[in-house]
Design a protein that fits this description.
Blueprint (H helix, E strand, L loop, with lengths): L1 H9 L10 E6 L8 E7 L5 E9 L5 H15 L8 E11 L2 E10 L2 E3 H8 L3 H25 L2 E2 L8 E4 L4 E3 L6 E2 L25 H4 L3 H6 L4 H16 L17 H10 L10 H7 L6 H10 L6 H15 L4 H17 L6 H10 L4 H7 L1 H7 L5 H9 L1 H4 L5 H12 L8 H14 L5 H15 L5 H14 L5 H15 L6 H13 L6 H13 L7 H23 L21 H12 L17 H8 L65 H10 L31 H4 L35 H11 L41
Antiparallel strand pairs: 1-2, 2-3, 3-5, 4-5, 6-8, 7-10, 8-9
Helix pairs in contact: 1-2, 4-7, 4-9, 11-13, 12-13, 16-19, 19-21, 21-23, 21-26, 21-27, 22-23, 23-25, 24-25, 28-30
InterPro entries: ARM-like (IPR011989), ARM-type_fold (IPR016024), CIK-Related_Protein (IPR051177), HEAT_type_2 (IPR021133), Kinase-like_dom_sf (IPR011009), Prot_kinase_dom (IPR000719)
Keywords: Kinase, Transferase
Organism: Salvia divinorum (Maria pastora)
């Protein structure tokens, strides 16, 4: 028998030298003759606990009992019983004698007595934690007694250890034996190694070795007595010295006193079953026990119960011991989120409970879960991650963001929900500084170019703000290509006044990146027009920007002529400019707090705008702009903002809904008509247009039949981001897929004052020319004459301008 047990123990190792673990420092206490060491794995350095028991020979009684403990620990598995990992037996010469040592390797644990001293819990928090621990040990004892028909024999504080997650676990199985109460023929001791039990822990019948009475008692009689001893040691704070001390109930909580007395009943048959202790005691009914139990059976709960629980959990966690929240609840919550059993509100609780962790612990316990959640298809989880990105974004490393997080976040740019698109846009304020230049140029800027023509005005505005904030993280070449084109051609011509205001402020905030030539030829001409903008806030911003940029150009003028590449100057030298960049950032980070957003939003375009105002509303002081809609200002359609004179950049022909049609593309300021100048009548305009036409056979010209864009974005493929701009015959540029803003860049101004103006009067002039042109001969029907509906013979088509015989009212001249 002994050889068999030795084979079982030595089956997983042949000696200490083959033990794949490093033995560290011992703890000050352990059960019986065992020594409890700290240890680590030689493979990965994972922490473990190592228990050792030494004897003078293989026949030593302690070693024989130790073999029983190893066998039992390997075969009995329960969540509240210490987890076995490895065991071995080693022999070593100690002088002239041979010393035999048994090693057991388990999960990392600490003796209960030392963990209690370390936690230093007091008052209700101490009672709640003790209740949770006793609840765990009672379940373990009930499992042994009622399910396995085993008797532990020595339940006490020394036989309880605590894991890294503060769970209490039962061990010390050296005395563990089968309950043979149904065997009437049995006469010997039921507990073969009962001599290992201290006399103070023995019940009356066990101290008398009355095995007949023990066999007639229920299986839990001995271990119920041990639970009573554990409760006494726990609340008295000292090791039990004599059995008589159990009568001192001064420190026992009143809610537990009655059950404590029943556990220590002098009659074994009347002792309380541990399973009944779990069911009946009001002592176990507290917030901590209820919370952990709910988390452990989370998969059995419906979605309504889960939502209610997780919405209350952040406030509930404040009332629980912080150490238990960090070491027990956080791992449970993280696991539930990773495996999909927790709902979106659990993310808020996870981040709040993790906020008090050290940076090292946060990186180990929180960030791995968050990175995994970014790959989730649950839209509510994605919304929650983006809403709270300011809480964990700084903890993400640049490598994490660029290689793992951004790939999943970027899907939100194309989401059908405007709310999710805006949250994705806001998140870039935190993530963009951590992205590589390759990712910014090759991916992020392409998405932002699409968002600048998004159907939601708030998203267009926020895109301009974001570009202004991340300008410092772009390289010089990208800034030259993107900023001026994005701010002037797109933002300053938007029909939404806060978007125009954002464009002005973004230009001002990034003024240090433009040289004098760019300011004079591309920025000032576009801003000056906005000084007569219908919106007063836009006008005031335009005047401030004009003064700022004029001062920068003046500084360039005052520099020595040899400094041809003089920069525009630093922002700090200009009054009132220091807060421009801060304004944009505060709009992004302070206005749209996660608490003000709903966690799950419909994909309809009207719902997301309840929070889309979070950034755009800060761009204007006008209360009427508080609700962001394209039609939020009734005077925009009646009084459209004036057109920019710099129309040779290829943008004048493009009507994408962000500005009205441009009526002229001449270079310079001569073509800007006064606002009060009256437009000629249609008849006069037609005659004037006809007179300009040469009297010759016109060559066939390609008519740009391209439909107008709207703010709802192009439905073409993603490679043609600027297809409308590329079709401009004047610019003659080819769109580069890597440079979405390059196609709308303004070319160098031409010095020639003459140009063939095919669109001098816009689309209306084309229709008027068609109205005075002779219709082609057809045979299918009779053409209409110049009179009022009366038939006539087809007129022979003639070249040149034709006289129109108008009999209706109007001046023929």
């Amino acid at each position: 028998m002994l050889k068999f047990l030795k084979g079982v123990v030595a089956g997983s190792g042949a000696g200490r030298k083959d033990l794949p673990y490093n033995i560290g420092e011992p703890y000050s206490s352990a059960w019986g003759s065992w020594v409890h060491y700290r240890g680590t794995s030689k493979d990965d350095g994972a922490p473990v606990s190592i228990f050792s028991l030494s004897g003078s020979s293989a026949n030593d009684g302690h070693l024989v009992a130790g073999h029983n403990g190893v066998k039992r620990l390997r075969t009995v598995r329960h969540p509240n019983i210490l987890s076995f990992l490895h065991s071995t037996e080693a022999e070593a010469l100690d002088g002239s004698t041979t010393k035999v040592t048994i090693y057991i390797v388990t999960e990392p644990v600490m003796p209960l007595s030392e963990k209690i001293k370390e936690l230093r819990l007091e008052g209700s928090q101490r009672d709640e934690y003790y209740a949770w621990g006793l609840h765990r040990i009672s379940k373990a004892v009930s499992f042994l007694n009622n399910d396995c028909k085993l008797v532990h024999g020595n339940v006490c504080m020394a036989s309880v250890v605590v894991t890294q997650t503060l769970d209490w676990k039962l061990h010390a199985f050296d005395v563990l034996s089968e309950y043979d109460g149904n065997n009437e023929a049995a006469t010997g001791p039921m507990l073969q190694y009962e001599w290992l039990i201290g006399s103070q822990y023995k019940s009356m019948e066990l101290s008398k070795s009355d095995w007949s009475a023990i066999r007639k008692s229920p299986p839990w009689a001995i271990d119920s007595w041990g639970l009573g001893c554990l409760i006494y040691e726990l609340f008295s704070g000292m090791k039990l010295g004599r059995t008589e001390e159990l009568r001192n109930t001064t420190n026992i909580p009143k809610s537990l006193l009655q059950d404590y007395q029943r556990l220590l009943s002098s009659m074994p048959s009347r002792r309380l079953n541990p399973s009944k202790l779990l069911e009946n005691s009001e002592y176990f009914q507290n917030k901590l026990v209820d919370t952990i139990q709910f988390m452990e059976i989370l998969n059995l709960m419906d979605s309504v119960e889960k939502d209610n629980f997780f919405r209350k959990l952040p406030n509930l966690a404040d009332q629980l011991p912080r150490s238990i929240v960090q070491k027990k609840l956080l791992p449970l919550l993280a696991s539930a989120l990773e495996f999909g059993s927790a709902t979106a509100p659990a993310l808020t609780a996870l981040l709040k409970m993790g906020s008090c962790l050290s940076p090292e612990e946060y990186g180990v316990k929180i960030l791995p879960t968050i990175i995994k959640l970014f790959a989730s298809n649950d839209r509510a989880i994605r919304v929650g991650l983006l809403q709270h990105i300011d809480q964990y974004g700084e903890s993400l490393s640049a490598q994490m963001v660029d290689e793992q997080v951004y790939l999943h976040v970027a899907n939100g740019f194309s989401d059908t929900s405007a709310f999710l698109r805006e949250l994705t846009l806001k998140s870039m304020l935190v993530l963009a500084p951590k992205l590589s230049q390759r990712t910014i140029s090759g991916s992020l800027l392409k998405f932002l170019s699409k968002l600048q023509v998004d159907e939601e005005p708030a998203i267009r505005t926020n895109t301009t703000i974001l570009l202004g904030n991340i300008a410092s993280h772009l390289n010089d070449g990208t800034r030259k290509r993107v900023l001026i084109n994005a701010f002037t051609v797109r933002a300053l011509r938007d029909t939404f006044s806060p978007a125009r205001g954002a464009g002005i402020m973004a230009l001002s905030a990034t003024s240090s990146y433009y040289d004098a030539t760019e300011i004079a030829t591309r920025i000032l001409p576009n801003i000056v027009v906005l000084t007569i903008d219908p919106d007063s806030d836009v006008r005031s911003k335009a005047f401030q920007a004009v003064e700022q940029f004029l001062q920068l150009v003046k500084q360039f003028h005052e520099k020595p002529s040899g400094d041809a590449t003089g920069a525009a100057g630093t922002l700090s030298s200009l009054p009132g400019n220091a807060s421009l960049l801060g304004w944009a950032m505060s709009s992004l980070t302070l206005k749209g707090k996660p608490s003000e957003q709903s966690t799950l939003v419909s994909t309809s375009s009207s719902v997301p705008l309840s929070s889309s105002i979070s950034i755009a509303s800060s761009l204007t002081d006008d209360a009427n702009i508080a609700q962001i809609r394209v039609n939020s200002r009734t005077d925009l359609s009646d009084n459209p903002p004036p057109a920019s004179p710099t129309l040779t950049d290829g943008w004048g022909d493009l009507d994408n809904g962000t500005r009205g049609e441009q009526d002229d593309d001449k270079v310079g300021w001569d073509d800007i008509e006064p606002l009060e100048e009256a437009r000629p009548s249609e008849a006069l305009a037609s005659i004037q247009a006809a007179q300009k036409r040469p009297v010759s056979v016109p060559k066939t010209q390609a008519i740009n039949s391209r439909p107008k864009n709207t703010l709802k974005g192009s439905k073409d493929d993603d490679d043609d981001l600027w297809g409308d701009v590329a079709s401009n015959t004047k610019s003659g540029k080819v769109v580069d897929a890597d440079d979405p803003w390059g196609a709308i860049a303004a070319p160098v101004l031409k010095s020639s004052s003459k140009s063939l103006n095919l669109k001098s009067s816009g689309s209306a002039s084309d229709e008027l020319w068609a109205s005075i042109a002779a219709p082609p001969p057809t045979a299918g029907h009779k053409p209409m004459s110049g009179g009022r509906g009366r038939g006539a013979k087809p007129a022979t088509p003639r070249l040149g301008a034709q006289r129109i015989n108008r009999t209706s009212s109007g001046n023929p001249n």
